[in-house]
Design a protein that fits this description.
29% of the residues lie in helices and 26% in strands. The chain is an alpha+beta fold.
Length: 77
């Protein structure tokens, strides 16, 4: 069963409370999303560590319930 965008956003927000999150359903099928996650707590972290924090927030759902996530992370300007 696909994940709802709201569920993805809630899981990320729980793990990264300062995050501003934009979720886009890329294919309209609930399996292929793009996420932009902007958080001050990413400051000083390499991009790979920022992505690891987001993937950890999804608690193992990547590759299973959530088939694909195009991820962009950033710190606020």
């Amino acid at each position: 069963m696909p994940m709802a965008a709201e569920e993805i956003e809630a899981m990320i927000k729980t793990a990264i409370p300062d995050a501003e999150i934009e979720i886009t359903d890329l294919a309209g099928d609930g399996d292929h999303y793009a996420a932009r996650v902007v958080a001050e707590s990413f400051r000083g972290l390499p991009r790979v560590r920022q992505h690891q924090r987001v993937y950890a927030a999804l608690e193992g759902r990547m590759g299973g319930v959530l088939h694909a996530l195009q991820l962009t992370t950033a710190i606020p300007n």
